[in-house]
Amino acid sequence: MANLPEPVAPPTQDVISTDLTEEEATRYDRQMRLWGIEAQQRMRNATILVVRLKGVATEAIKNVVLAGIGKLIIVDDENVNEEDLGAGFFFRDEDVGLKRLDAAKSRIESLNPLVTVETITDTSTSNEGVLEAIIKTVDLVCVTDWNRDGLIRINEICRRYQKPFYSGGTYGLVGYIFCDLLSHDYLAPDRSAPKDQPKSVKTTANYTPLNSAILHQWSSLTKRQTKEINPALFFAVLAVWQFQSSHGNLPNDTNQTDELESIANSLISQAQVNQQVLTKEPRELLQSLSITASHEFSPVCAIVGGMLAQDILKALGGREPPIANFFVFDGNTGGGTVCRMNMP
Protein backbone atom coordinates (compact mmCIF):
# COMPACT_ATOMS: atom_id res chain seq x y z
CA MET A 1 0.00 0.00 0.00
CA ALA A 2 1.28 3.46 -0.90
CA ASN A 3 2.72 5.66 1.85
CA LEU A 4 1.37 9.08 2.67
CA PRO A 5 3.25 11.94 0.99
CA GLU A 6 5.92 13.42 3.27
CA PRO A 7 6.41 17.19 3.52
CA VAL A 8 9.67 18.44 2.02
CA ALA A 9 9.81 21.52 4.22
CA PRO A 10 7.88 23.20 7.03
CA PRO A 11 4.90 25.21 5.80
CA THR A 12 5.44 28.90 5.25
CA GLN A 13 3.45 31.50 7.16
CA ASP A 14 1.56 32.38 3.95
CA VAL A 15 0.35 28.80 3.66
CA ILE A 16 -0.78 28.63 7.28
CA SER A 17 -2.73 31.88 6.93
CA THR A 18 -5.10 30.37 4.35
CA ASP A 19 -8.19 28.32 5.15
CA LEU A 20 -6.03 25.21 5.33
CA THR A 21 -5.14 24.02 8.80
CA GLU A 22 -1.51 23.80 9.82
CA GLU A 23 -1.68 20.01 9.62
CA GLU A 24 -3.05 20.18 6.08
CA ALA A 25 -0.45 22.75 5.06
CA THR A 26 2.31 20.49 6.35
CA ARG A 27 0.95 17.31 4.77
CA TYR A 28 0.27 18.89 1.38
CA ASP A 29 3.24 21.25 1.22
CA ARG A 30 5.00 19.39 -1.59
CA GLN A 31 2.01 19.23 -3.91
CA MET A 32 0.95 22.83 -3.21
CA ARG A 33 4.34 23.88 -4.54
CA LEU A 34 3.31 22.13 -7.75
CA TRP A 35 -0.28 23.29 -8.28
CA GLY A 36 -0.76 26.13 -5.78
CA ILE A 37 -2.76 26.85 -2.64
CA GLU A 38 -6.03 27.74 -4.39
CA ALA A 39 -6.11 24.43 -6.27
CA GLN A 40 -5.42 22.57 -3.02
CA GLN A 41 -8.28 24.42 -1.32
CA ARG A 42 -10.66 23.44 -4.11
CA MET A 43 -9.64 19.81 -3.71
CA ARG A 44 -9.97 20.01 0.06
CA ASN A 45 -13.50 21.40 -0.25
CA ALA A 46 -14.63 18.80 -2.79
CA THR A 47 -16.84 15.78 -2.20
CA ILE A 48 -16.35 13.01 -4.75
CA LEU A 49 -18.69 10.11 -5.38
CA VAL A 50 -17.12 6.87 -6.69
CA VAL A 51 -19.45 4.12 -7.85
CA ARG A 52 -18.09 0.54 -7.77
CA LEU A 53 -14.81 -0.51 -6.18
CA LYS A 54 -12.94 -2.56 -8.78
CA GLY A 55 -9.31 -2.30 -9.90
CA VAL A 56 -9.50 1.08 -11.67
CA ALA A 57 -11.39 2.67 -8.78
CA THR A 58 -8.88 1.25 -6.29
CA GLU A 59 -5.99 3.10 -7.94
CA ALA A 60 -8.01 6.27 -8.51
CA ILE A 61 -9.21 6.38 -4.90
CA LYS A 62 -5.68 5.94 -3.58
CA ASN A 63 -4.46 8.96 -5.53
CA VAL A 64 -7.32 11.37 -4.83
CA VAL A 65 -7.27 10.52 -1.12
CA LEU A 66 -3.52 11.07 -0.89
CA ALA A 67 -3.95 14.37 -2.75
CA GLY A 68 -6.29 15.63 -0.02
CA ILE A 69 -9.85 15.85 -1.26
CA GLY A 70 -12.37 16.75 1.43
CA LYS A 71 -14.76 13.82 1.36
CA LEU A 72 -15.03 10.55 -0.54
CA ILE A 73 -18.32 8.66 -0.87
CA ILE A 74 -18.07 5.14 -2.29
CA VAL A 75 -21.06 3.11 -3.41
CA ASP A 76 -20.68 -0.65 -3.92
CA ASP A 77 -22.91 -3.49 -2.74
CA GLU A 78 -20.84 -6.44 -3.99
CA ASN A 79 -18.71 -8.94 -2.07
CA VAL A 80 -14.97 -9.50 -2.44
CA ASN A 81 -14.23 -12.43 -4.75
CA GLU A 82 -10.93 -14.14 -5.48
CA GLU A 83 -10.37 -12.23 -8.70
CA ASP A 84 -10.64 -8.92 -6.81
CA LEU A 85 -7.42 -9.82 -4.99
CA GLY A 86 -5.40 -9.41 -8.18
CA ALA A 87 -6.07 -5.71 -8.84
CA GLY A 88 -7.66 -4.63 -5.56
CA PHE A 89 -4.83 -3.88 -3.16
CA PHE A 90 -7.31 -2.85 -0.47
CA PHE A 91 -8.33 -6.51 -0.17
CA ARG A 92 -6.74 -9.52 1.56
CA ASP A 93 -7.32 -13.26 1.23
CA GLU A 94 -9.42 -13.32 4.38
CA ASP A 95 -11.75 -10.67 2.92
CA VAL A 96 -13.24 -13.00 0.31
CA GLY A 97 -17.00 -13.15 0.91
CA LEU A 98 -17.13 -9.83 2.82
CA LYS A 99 -18.61 -6.66 1.41
CA ARG A 100 -15.93 -4.88 -0.61
CA LEU A 101 -16.44 -1.62 1.23
CA ASP A 102 -16.51 -3.23 4.68
CA ALA A 103 -13.13 -4.77 3.91
CA ALA A 104 -11.60 -1.67 2.31
CA LYS A 105 -12.88 1.30 4.34
CA SER A 106 -10.30 1.30 7.15
CA ARG A 107 -7.46 0.82 4.65
CA ILE A 108 -8.66 3.74 2.56
CA GLU A 109 -8.95 5.92 5.67
CA SER A 110 -5.42 5.01 6.75
CA LEU A 111 -4.03 6.55 3.55
CA ASN A 112 -4.96 10.03 4.74
CA PRO A 113 -6.79 10.59 8.06
CA LEU A 114 -7.69 14.13 6.95
CA VAL A 115 -10.11 12.82 4.31
CA THR A 116 -13.63 11.80 5.34
CA VAL A 117 -14.59 8.43 3.86
CA GLU A 118 -18.23 7.35 3.68
CA THR A 119 -19.22 3.94 2.32
CA ILE A 120 -22.67 2.84 1.17
CA THR A 121 -23.28 -0.89 0.76
CA ASP A 122 -27.08 -0.95 0.77
CA THR A 123 -28.27 -2.89 -2.28
CA SER A 124 -30.88 -0.19 -2.86
CA THR A 125 -28.09 2.01 -4.22
CA SER A 126 -28.39 0.10 -7.49
CA ASN A 127 -31.65 2.00 -7.79
CA GLU A 128 -30.94 5.13 -9.83
CA GLY A 129 -33.38 7.16 -7.73
CA VAL A 130 -31.19 6.53 -4.69
CA LEU A 131 -28.05 7.38 -6.68
CA GLU A 132 -29.71 10.57 -7.85
CA ALA A 133 -30.26 11.65 -4.25
CA ILE A 134 -26.55 11.10 -3.54
CA ILE A 135 -25.41 12.85 -6.74
CA LYS A 136 -27.26 16.01 -5.67
CA THR A 137 -24.98 16.32 -2.64
CA VAL A 138 -21.54 15.87 -4.25
CA ASP A 139 -19.22 17.95 -6.41
CA LEU A 140 -18.03 15.31 -8.88
CA VAL A 141 -19.15 11.80 -9.88
CA CYS A 142 -16.88 8.96 -11.00
CA VAL A 143 -18.39 5.65 -12.16
CA THR A 144 -16.04 2.75 -12.89
CA ASP A 145 -16.43 -0.58 -14.66
CA TRP A 146 -20.07 0.02 -15.45
CA ASN A 147 -22.15 -0.85 -18.52
CA ARG A 148 -22.77 1.69 -21.28
CA ASP A 149 -26.50 2.10 -20.72
CA GLY A 150 -26.00 2.67 -16.99
CA LEU A 151 -23.26 5.20 -17.67
CA ILE A 152 -25.50 7.13 -20.04
CA ARG A 153 -28.30 7.29 -17.45
CA ILE A 154 -26.00 8.40 -14.62
CA ASN A 155 -24.38 10.97 -16.93
CA GLU A 156 -27.86 12.35 -17.67
CA ILE A 157 -28.55 12.66 -13.93
CA CYS A 158 -25.24 14.49 -13.47
CA ARG A 159 -26.16 16.91 -16.25
CA ARG A 160 -29.54 17.54 -14.61
CA TYR A 161 -27.75 18.75 -11.46
CA GLN A 162 -24.71 20.23 -13.22
CA LYS A 163 -22.23 17.75 -11.73
CA PRO A 164 -19.00 16.87 -13.59
CA PHE A 165 -18.98 13.21 -14.62
CA TYR A 166 -16.13 10.73 -15.12
CA SER A 167 -16.23 7.09 -16.10
CA GLY A 168 -13.41 4.63 -16.55
CA GLY A 169 -12.74 0.93 -16.73
CA THR A 170 -10.75 -1.88 -18.27
CA TYR A 171 -11.54 -4.81 -20.54
CA GLY A 172 -8.55 -7.08 -20.23
CA LEU A 173 -5.62 -5.18 -21.73
CA VAL A 174 -7.78 -2.32 -23.03
CA GLY A 175 -8.85 0.58 -20.82
CA TYR A 176 -10.76 3.82 -21.24
CA ILE A 177 -11.65 7.10 -19.54
CA PHE A 178 -14.56 9.34 -20.56
CA CYS A 179 -15.43 12.67 -18.99
CA ASP A 180 -18.25 15.18 -19.29
CA LEU A 181 -17.23 18.32 -17.43
CA LEU A 182 -20.14 20.42 -18.72
CA SER A 183 -18.72 23.91 -19.30
CA HIS A 184 -15.28 23.76 -17.70
CA ASP A 185 -12.92 26.69 -17.00
CA TYR A 186 -9.18 26.18 -16.70
CA LEU A 187 -5.91 28.03 -17.19
CA ALA A 188 -4.03 27.51 -20.44
CA PRO A 189 -0.70 28.97 -21.64
CA ASP A 190 -1.07 32.24 -23.52
CA ARG A 191 0.69 31.49 -26.81
CA SER A 192 0.70 35.17 -27.75
CA ALA A 193 2.81 36.11 -24.72
CA PRO A 194 6.59 36.53 -25.13
CA LYS A 195 8.57 33.39 -24.36
CA ASP A 196 10.43 35.15 -21.57
CA GLN A 197 7.14 36.29 -20.03
CA PRO A 198 4.90 33.21 -19.93
CA LYS A 199 1.30 33.91 -19.02
CA SER A 200 -1.85 31.90 -18.58
CA VAL A 201 -5.31 32.78 -19.81
CA LYS A 202 -8.70 31.53 -18.69
CA THR A 203 -10.09 29.05 -21.21
CA THR A 204 -13.47 27.35 -21.36
CA ALA A 205 -14.10 23.89 -22.80
CA ASN A 206 -17.66 22.79 -23.52
CA TYR A 207 -18.13 19.05 -23.06
CA THR A 208 -20.77 16.70 -24.41
CA PRO A 209 -22.65 13.82 -22.71
CA LEU A 210 -21.76 10.19 -23.39
CA ASN A 211 -24.86 9.44 -25.43
CA SER A 212 -23.77 12.14 -27.88
CA ALA A 213 -20.05 11.37 -27.78
CA ILE A 214 -20.48 7.76 -28.94
CA LEU A 215 -22.23 9.03 -32.10
CA HIS A 216 -19.11 10.98 -33.12
CA GLN A 217 -18.51 11.17 -36.87
CA TRP A 218 -14.86 10.73 -37.87
CA SER A 219 -15.22 12.10 -41.41
CA SER A 220 -13.92 15.55 -40.41
CA LEU A 221 -10.48 14.16 -39.53
CA THR A 222 -7.68 13.98 -42.08
CA LYS A 223 -5.96 10.70 -42.83
CA ARG A 224 -3.00 11.70 -40.66
CA GLN A 225 -5.18 12.81 -37.74
CA THR A 226 -7.21 9.61 -37.89
CA LYS A 227 -4.08 7.46 -37.94
CA GLU A 228 -2.57 9.30 -34.97
CA ILE A 229 -5.69 8.75 -32.88
CA ASN A 230 -5.82 5.00 -33.64
CA PRO A 231 -9.61 4.61 -33.97
CA ALA A 232 -9.48 0.79 -33.66
CA LEU A 233 -9.17 1.07 -29.87
CA PHE A 234 -12.20 3.34 -29.57
CA PHE A 235 -14.36 1.03 -31.65
CA ALA A 236 -13.15 -1.96 -29.65
CA VAL A 237 -14.53 -0.32 -26.48
CA LEU A 238 -17.75 0.70 -28.22
CA ALA A 239 -18.19 -2.84 -29.56
CA VAL A 240 -17.77 -4.33 -26.07
CA TRP A 241 -20.35 -1.85 -24.76
CA GLN A 242 -22.82 -2.82 -27.50
CA PHE A 243 -22.25 -6.53 -26.85
CA GLN A 244 -22.82 -6.05 -23.13
CA SER A 245 -25.98 -4.06 -23.78
CA SER A 246 -27.37 -6.86 -25.96
CA HIS A 247 -26.39 -9.81 -23.77
CA GLY A 248 -26.31 -8.40 -20.24
CA ASN A 249 -22.71 -9.57 -19.74
CA LEU A 250 -19.22 -9.07 -21.14
CA PRO A 251 -17.82 -11.40 -23.81
CA ASN A 252 -15.90 -14.34 -22.32
CA ASP A 253 -15.38 -16.83 -25.13
CA THR A 254 -13.45 -16.82 -28.43
CA ASN A 255 -16.63 -18.01 -30.11
CA GLN A 256 -17.96 -14.49 -29.56
CA THR A 257 -15.24 -12.89 -31.68
CA ASP A 258 -17.38 -12.97 -34.81
CA GLU A 259 -20.19 -11.05 -33.12
CA LEU A 260 -17.78 -8.47 -31.71
CA GLU A 261 -16.25 -8.09 -35.16
CA SER A 262 -19.63 -7.57 -36.77
CA ILE A 263 -20.58 -4.93 -34.19
CA ALA A 264 -17.25 -3.08 -34.49
CA ASN A 265 -17.25 -3.04 -38.28
CA SER A 266 -20.82 -1.76 -38.37
CA LEU A 267 -19.90 1.05 -35.96
CA ILE A 268 -16.84 1.95 -38.05
CA SER A 269 -18.98 2.21 -41.17
CA GLN A 270 -21.64 4.31 -39.43
CA ALA A 271 -18.99 6.71 -38.06
CA GLN A 272 -17.46 7.26 -41.52
CA VAL A 273 -13.90 6.52 -40.49
CA ASN A 274 -11.30 7.28 -43.18
CA GLN A 275 -11.07 4.00 -45.11
CA GLN A 276 -7.41 4.61 -45.93
CA VAL A 277 -6.74 4.22 -42.22
CA LEU A 278 -9.30 1.67 -41.01
CA THR A 279 -11.82 -0.35 -42.99
CA LYS A 280 -12.43 -3.05 -40.41
CA GLU A 281 -11.51 -3.80 -36.80
CA PRO A 282 -8.31 -5.89 -36.33
CA ARG A 283 -9.50 -9.41 -35.61
CA GLU A 284 -6.62 -10.19 -33.25
CA LEU A 285 -7.69 -7.29 -31.00
CA LEU A 286 -11.24 -8.61 -30.86
CA GLN A 287 -10.05 -12.16 -30.23
CA SER A 288 -8.12 -10.91 -27.24
CA LEU A 289 -11.11 -8.95 -25.96
CA SER A 290 -13.47 -11.88 -26.40
CA ILE A 291 -11.58 -13.89 -23.77
CA THR A 292 -10.12 -11.15 -21.52
CA ALA A 293 -12.78 -8.41 -21.36
CA SER A 294 -14.31 -9.79 -18.17
CA HIS A 295 -10.93 -9.99 -16.40
CA GLU A 296 -8.76 -7.37 -14.71
CA PHE A 297 -5.01 -7.01 -15.13
CA SER A 298 -3.36 -5.10 -12.33
CA PRO A 299 -0.87 -3.08 -14.46
CA VAL A 300 -3.62 -1.88 -16.80
CA CYS A 301 -5.87 -0.96 -13.86
CA ALA A 302 -2.99 0.94 -12.25
CA ILE A 303 -2.30 3.01 -15.38
CA VAL A 304 -5.93 3.79 -16.20
CA GLY A 305 -6.83 4.42 -12.55
CA GLY A 306 -3.80 6.65 -12.08
CA MET A 307 -4.69 8.73 -15.14
CA LEU A 308 -8.31 8.90 -14.02
CA ALA A 309 -7.29 10.29 -10.62
CA GLN A 310 -4.84 12.73 -12.19
CA ASP A 311 -7.55 14.08 -14.46
CA ILE A 312 -10.07 14.40 -11.65
CA LEU A 313 -7.54 16.48 -9.71
CA LYS A 314 -6.91 18.61 -12.81
CA ALA A 315 -10.62 19.25 -13.14
CA LEU A 316 -10.93 20.21 -9.46
CA GLY A 317 -7.81 22.37 -9.52
CA GLY A 318 -8.72 24.21 -12.73
CA ARG A 319 -5.10 24.89 -13.62
CA GLU A 320 -4.57 22.50 -16.53
CA PRO A 321 -6.72 21.18 -19.38
CA PRO A 322 -8.38 17.85 -18.50
CA ILE A 323 -9.04 15.04 -20.97
CA ALA A 324 -11.25 16.15 -23.83
CA ASN A 325 -13.05 13.86 -23.75
CA PHE A 326 -12.39 10.15 -24.49
CA PHE A 327 -9.11 8.38 -23.68
CA VAL A 328 -8.25 4.78 -24.58
CA PHE A 329 -5.27 2.71 -23.46
CA ASP A 330 -3.76 -0.35 -25.14
CA GLY A 331 -1.91 -2.60 -22.71
CA ASN A 332 -0.46 -4.56 -25.64
CA THR A 333 1.65 -1.59 -26.71
CA GLY A 334 1.61 0.54 -23.54
CA GLY A 335 0.24 3.48 -25.51
CA GLY A 336 -2.87 5.61 -25.18
CA THR A 337 -4.64 8.30 -27.13
CA VAL A 338 -7.37 10.92 -26.71
CA CYS A 339 -10.14 11.84 -29.13
CA ARG A 340 -12.51 14.83 -28.95
CA MET A 341 -15.74 12.97 -29.58
CA ASN A 342 -18.56 15.30 -30.61
CA MET A 343 -17.09 18.20 -28.67
CA PRO A 344 -17.43 21.68 -30.21
From TrEMBL:
The keyword Nucleus applies. GO terms for biological process: protein sumoylation. SUPFAM superfamilies: Activating enzymes of the ubiquitin-like proteins (SSF69572). Pfam families: ThiF. GO terms for molecular function: SUMO activating enzyme activity. Its main location: nucleus. The keyword Cell cycle does not apply. It is found in: Nucleus. Residues 28-340 form the THIF-type NAD/FAD binding fold domain. Pathway: Protein modification; protein sumoylation. Keywords: Nucleus, Ubl conjugation pathway. GO terms for cellular component: cytoplasm; SUMO activating enzyme complex. Residues 1-20 are annotated as: Disordered. Belongs to the ubiquitin-activating E1 family. This is Ubiquitin-like 1-activating enzyme E1A. It comes from Pholiota conissans.
